[in-house]
Amino acid sequence: MEKAAGSPSAGGSYPQKNAEILSSQYGINLFLAGLLLTFAWAVHAVGISKSHLLSYLITLMLIQLLWMLWYLGRSCTQRRLIRDKDTHAGARWLKCGITLFAVITLILDSFKIGYYIDFSNCLSPTEGIFPVTHAVHTILQVYFLWCHAKDIIQSFKTLERFGVIHSVFTNLLLWTNGVLTESKHQLNEHKERLITLGFGNITIVLDDHAPQCNCTTTTLCSIFSQGIYYLYPFNIEYHILASTMLYVLWKNIGRKVEHHQQHKTPFKFHGITVGMIFGLVVLTSTIAIVVVYLIQIGRSKIKSELALTMFYLHAIFVLALMCTAGIVALLIYRLEDRSLDNSKNPARKLDAELLVGTAAGSWLLSWGSILAIICAQAHPKYTWYNLPYSVLVIIEKYIQNLFIIESIHREQEKVNDDIKTLRIVTISRGSTLSLTPSYKEIYNGRAAPESREVPCLLKGSICGRENDRGAKEETIQDKSSVMHSASDISFYSRNSVTNNKRRILKNIAAFLFLCNLSLWIPPAFGCRPEYDNGLEEIVFGFEPWIIVVNLAMPFSIFYRMHSAASLFEVNCKT
Length: 574
Known about the structure:
Keywords: Cell membrane, Hydrogen ion transport, Ion channel, Ion transport, Membrane, Transmembrane, Transmembrane helix, Transport. This protein is an all-alpha fold. It is built from 16 helices and no strands. α2 (50-77) runs parallel beside α4 and α2 runs antiparallel to α5. The protein is globular, with a radius of gyration of 32 Å.
């Protein structure tokens, strides 16, 4: 029997801990089975076809659809109940991002359906069923995440753990399938381009999974087949974002939260003009570089070398700017004295772990390039630009991770009591509000309407003493106002410095946000010098290096998108 949600040990009880361990092991085995099936299809294992892999994925998606429908139905029947929510999970900007990627994923599914219709004579029925099932799965999952990403489940906890972890690893397998399909396409294009760089000693064998029949409509088939591979990067990001949001939901099952007011942090363009301008310049130039790179690479040896040189020089400049911005932000943090929020937060912990974990993909590629440059016997001119580029990739991620992790752990500034006092004092000194009439106003007959005029009955010494007392009060008030003015000026100067620091940090976060989006574009859309410069393939061998790149590149791509999302949150929070 499960303990009640209100018991002190709920979430940490022995049965619930067992349920967490059992569900995680179920998910891992589910993932490993699918991963092995994917690998068997990729290497053309005997008896394993693409239909087997797609059948497995369709089954997993159908099971998740049934669980989500059950959860949504149960939630509708209990909608009057007050439920705990994790205010840090499922931010609105994150939901908007996953919705955008989901819409593009639906376009990808429609292209796959069209591709199946054109090649229906020689394709397995599972290749037509898969995109339809995936489209339904995508629509329902996005709706589910919009409505329930913040939930802290306190009932049916054991069953819900298995349902959520099944959803997590289903999305991870769909992500793996997308990564593999996109990587095979990139690898085929890379093999065709290698000969133009003079690496004729590498055996080129295309890994072709194209259907063995003619297309019914040649033009449409070409549009569908080419468009599919340009939409895969968005599909990949959609599934990895969905899996992370579901993982946070799984970690929150049975969790006890402290009820406190959560400050909303809306995104504002005010005050980040400089960062946005520089970031947009980097974004525009990166898109131009990618277009030129994809046009020039593989045309001839000279054009390919020029394209690589252009890419490296642009990346070196951008990475140097990002390192400088990150260092400035960290120096500002060292000058501030603000405590860190160390409260338990699964979403924040996952963000930090993903930043460091996925950065390892880029670090692996960078160290491989550095080692290849050191060990290679011949060094074409363009390969020397690879050395500072690889070093800066390592340093930039190191600095950026430190900045982001410290930013998401810093407590938000609260309104200081001095600010409240200052506002009261400022209002009370204004001409529109006077809490009590001064002695001067009373004796001069300018009191408030509710106070009557008080005449001086005795014109002798009594009135003289009262006038002297009024003069003294006026002098004391004048001195007090001077002292308050000095303290106000000091407070305003301190507040101005704080605002300037905050403005600089917001501009840095905005600039790094756009830079990370810019650096996500090249590898996501086929601009990968790790494939094209050829030096690493000579040192490590073609197959070993390609395996390293195919394993590390998806993490490198995800790192940039995850960093951009984290920096967006930093900008809202600062």
